[in-house]
Amino acid sequence: MTADLTLRALLAAGVERLAASAAGSGPDASPELDAQVLLAHALKIPRARLRSHPESRADPQRAALYLELLERRALGEPLAYLTGWREFWSLRLAVSPAVLVPRPETELLVERALALRAAPQGRAADLGTGSGAVALALASERPGWRLVATDVAPAALEVARANAAALALTRIEFRQGSWFEPLAGERFDLVLSNPPYVAADDPVLAGPALAHEPRLALTPGEDALASLRILARGAPPHLTPGGWLLLEHGAGQAAQVRHELVAAGLRSVRSHRDLAGHERMTEGQRG
Fold it and tell me: How far apart are CA 211 and CA 213, in angstroms?
């Protein structure tokens, strides 16, 4: 791409490559930031050094790694998979292709859970935990809570357990199983989930933004609401009196999810908007 190994030239070449790619053309694309993150990662230096010492020359092997990462990013591979981590709720989480990349909008689940239960003690379950993002965020904010985090995928639980160990957040029990199966006979003050909610035939799944992420975490099949429906209908027996169910869902699914929660007998059902203004999660309370 470039014979000039100065940080300035490598960064400029990276921005040009990403801006011309599918990964750099969407409304949320950030080719300059992505190039900075990848160059700093490949060279093992702080991003600030790219600005403070642009004339510095990179080691040829490190520069070659950077160019390889650039090509993978240009083909749509998520930045978090390339660097191996993603920040969520100020926590640095390890991620891999075994788990969905945590999104900023999922922090709304954490915000609402903390708002609904301020008590220092409590029990919460995060179903379909993936990287452990939601459960770990709650554990960091409420060290007195007892948390259970479940996932059907053993590889995902391996990532979540490693994140818990790295962050020294020990009051989380990780269990393998589908939705409520690992919670037999147990009740919680809060049950949370960011389940798959994209229909299997939705073309967005083949687009560069999602093509590299685990399909199991994105789609429940032809019926986009299938997992949400299971969670809504199965939640009441696992909630303490006054306990809450919190579900993330697609931007156009709020009305249907509210209907499911009401049909399940939950009260105080309401949806909340994410930073983009979309109704992104819905909650309901057991009487």
Answer: 6
Position 87: which residue type? E
Tell me which residue has tokens 């993978």: 72
> Tens digits of per-residue pLDDT, 148-179?
999 999 999 999 999 999 999 989 999 999 99
Strand partners, 174: 149
- Domains along the chain? 7-76 (1.10.8), 86-285 (3.40.50.150)
Q: Which of 195, 182, 184 is nearest to 128 (CA)?
A: 195
What contacts 28, CB < 8 A, 6 or more positions away? none
- Which tokens hold the place of 285? 């309370």
What are 247's two structure tokens?
């579900």
pLDDT in tens, 212-229: 888 888 889 899 999 999
Query: What Cα–Cα distance (Å) separates residue 102 from each residue in 45, 52, 91, 107, 132?
Result: 24, 31, 11, 9, 9
Round to whole Å and give the CA distance between 112 and 257.
17
Overall average pLDDT of the 63-90 stretch: 93
